[in-house]
Design goal:
By secondary structure, the chain is an alpha+beta fold.
Length: about 375
């Protein structure tokens, strides 16, 4: 029970931080906030302070920062629609921006404790594309399709997000006269000769993942400077945000099924299971594991919310940017209908995902 509680609190905290972005920027721009809530559905706890109602609701599936005149104008000088278009853009964009701030803090903590792991090939698996392409043990993967690989996690993520695609891999290889023992491969200050190969990943039934056929043994390095620590922390945010958006592409192209999409129930269950597994290692490891999950959730939530889809922050930003360009607001009734339709689709999707989550938990 304690494990699930920790998961729910983490999930709620990430959502709360997102809504705090909207809340703070609304207050900074003089917008009246009617209600600030964590969760959806019936209120569990609620109270009013300084004209704003603060609520904790039953379902930890979202949250809201309800502002006066958010959808229809009534002439309230402190209403959302009475403010300039750029003030409204700042309020809407603040939610995802706060998620990126939180993810960045979490990313720096993880890298500071764990370090970073260079994408070095430890072994090439016989019969797989990497062997046919000519990759060798000791090669350092520098980039894939022009995208720099800072860590081994970058490589894994790219392979899973581009299944069965032809990949252009640039690698670094030590000259034969500079060959080192495997224990010395994991260094950044070595002089490599670069080369490029192309290959396609293949699906491995046992691991249920797309593979190029290399093995890697983790060897973590501490960040050598504060600047590098901050860059690597931000890199975590960018990598996870991009992967969340790319996952939508895989969903629509059929590489990811609806049953494979995890919603709040599955996420909470997964976090709870993780907490149970690492608790014997001590509370420091539990805390770091929760921070790592918080990094994933916050970066993903921030990135997905920026997608220009109705009912998401990105959809609202799209309308506001059109207004900024044309100098005239789009009819509020029409915009409201678009967002309402998007919200209905989103709620239906959430119900479907929640049903699948519960079914998979019962079956599995």
């Amino acid at each position: 029970m304690l494990n699930i509680l920790a998961a729910i609190l983490l999930f709620g905290f990430v959502i709360m931080f997102h809504e705090l972005g909207h809340f703070f920027l609304a207050k900074a721009n003089g917008v009246e906030v009617v209600e600030f809530s964590i969760g959806l559905g019936p209120r569990l706890l609620s109270g009013v302070w300084r004209s704003t109602r603060y609520s904790l609701k039953l379902l930890p599936l979202g949250g809201s920062c309800a502002m006066a005149d958010e959808d229809t104008g009534s002439g309230n000088p402190n209403g959302f629609l009475s403010k300039s278009v750029w003030a409204r853009i700042s309020i809407i964009a603040a939610g995802p921006f706060f998620n990126f701030i939180l993810a960045f803090i979490f990313g720096v903590i993880i890298v500071a404790y764990q370090g970073y792991d260079l994408p070095v090939v430890t072994n090439v698996v016989e019969g797989y594309p990497a062997e046919a392409a000519g990759l060798k043990a000791g090669d350092l993967i520098l980039s894939v399709d022009g995208k720099k690989m800072l860590e081994y996690q970058d490589l894994l993520m790219h392979l899973q997000l581009h299944p069965e695609e032809e990949l252009e891999i640039t690698y670094g290889r030590l000259p034969e006269e500079q060959a080192l023992e495997p224990s010395a491969w994991y260094q950044e200050d070595l002089t490599y000769e670069t080369g490029t190969v192309t290959l396609r990943t293949v699906f491995n039934e046992e691991s249920q993942s797309y593979m190029m056929g290399i093995e890697h043994y983790a060897d973590y390095h501490k960040a050598e400077s504060l600047g590098k620590l901050l860059r690597l922390g931000w890199h975590q945010v960018v990598m996870l945000g991009q992967s969340a958006i790319e996952s939508f592409r895989l969903l629509f192209t059929g590489y990811v099924g609806a049953d494979d999409v995890g919603g709040p129930v599955r996420i909470v269950a997964g976090i709870g299971q993780m907490v149970g597994q690492v608790r014997p290692s001590g509370w420091v490891i539990v805390l770091l594991s929760l921070i790592n999950w918080g990094l994933i959730l916050s970066a993903s939530l921030g990135a997905v919310n920026l997608l220009p889809l109705p009912a998401l922050d990105g959809g609202r930003l799209a309308f506001l940017l059109v207004e900024a360009v044309r100098g005239k607001a789009i009819d509020q009734e029409k915009e409201g209908m678009v967002h309402f339709a998007g919200m209905m689709v989103l709620l239906a999707l959430m119900i479907l995902i929640m049903f699948n989550d519960i079914r998979n938990l019962i079956i599995g």
